[in-house]
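can u do me a favor
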């Protein structure tokens, strides 16, 4: 009797272990199919744009719309001579995003959890959302002499608000039942932040990062065009002043590729950090 009683749980566990892999694979199949569909759609759209540009370039002068071949040649020229400007722009962008994420998440958590500082921080962030990016750029020109400080300041004040507001909304959307359950263990404030509040806001941080990447790229190019002599923005300004529209479009293609790479990296981080979450699919 004792042997039989022990063998049943072992069999159940083994059966459960055997069924776990198919369930996991089945859950992963929709995500893999979606990724393949997205990649296929991206390739089709790129090819379609190339065909349209090739056809249109035959009816207008080269200084209005060069052919994809001319843009490709300009791209090779830029990547062989001006690769340093790409690295500078990437460094500025990465530094601003990491800093804005760190400070913005901290501000958002305080907005959602602190009754003393929360209202004042919310008011400050809401005021920041009403200030145009152009105003911050002009202010940065007056406040800072160093171009790097100008660009860092501009990107930070623009990106920080997105993280703060989204994390704040993430804290507000937390289930009260989860909080009640955690309170039954009488945790300290730090333990509540560590084990419930911060993990709950991770999806909001990742979503914000994926959302602001394209916007951040546009802002850093605009800031470089206004306040710097190096970087992709400055090189696009130089191409415009020398009437090299092929280089302008080549730099634009570089920015699109960088955006796709950043989105891909953010997607990998999301899959790794949120692999516990079951993805809902609409049938």
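np, heres the sequence
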């Amino acid at each position: 009797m004792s042997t039989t009683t022990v063998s049943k749980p072992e069999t159940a566990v083994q059966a459960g272990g055997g069924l776990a892999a198919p369930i996991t694979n089945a859950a992963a199949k929709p995500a893999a199919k979606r990724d393949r569909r997205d990649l296929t759609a991206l390739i089709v759209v790129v090819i379609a744009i190339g065909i349209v540009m090739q056809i249109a370039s035959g009816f207008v002068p080269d200084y209005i719309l060069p052919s994809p071949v001319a843009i490709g040649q300009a791209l090779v020229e830029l990547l062989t001579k001006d690769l340093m400007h790409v690295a500078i722009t990437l460094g500025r962008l990465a530094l601003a995003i990491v800093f804005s994420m760190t400070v913005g998440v901290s501000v958002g958590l305080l907005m959602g959890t602190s009754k003393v500082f929360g209202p004042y921080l919310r008011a400050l962030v809401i005021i920041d959302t009403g200030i145009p990016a152009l105003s911050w750029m002009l202010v940065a020109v007056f406040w800072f002499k160093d171009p790097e400080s100008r660009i860092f300041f501009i990107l930070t004040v623009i990106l920080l608000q997105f993280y703060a507001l989204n994390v704040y909304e993430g804290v507000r959307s937390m289930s009260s039942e989860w909080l009640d359950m955690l309170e039954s263990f009488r945790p300290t404030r730090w333990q509540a932040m560590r084990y419930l509040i911060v993990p709950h806001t991770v999806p909001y941080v990742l979503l914000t990062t994926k959302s602001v990447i394209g916007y951040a790229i546009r802002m850093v190019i605009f800031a470089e065009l206004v306040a710097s002599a190096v970087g992709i923005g400055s090189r696009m300004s130089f191409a415009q002043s020398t009437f090299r529209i092929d280089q302008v479009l080549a730099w634009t293609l570089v920015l699109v590729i960088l955006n796709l790479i950043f989105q891909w990296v953010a997607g990998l981080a999301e899959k790794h950090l949120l692999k516990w979450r079951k993805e809902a699919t609409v049938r």
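The longest helix spans residues 2-57. hope that helps!!
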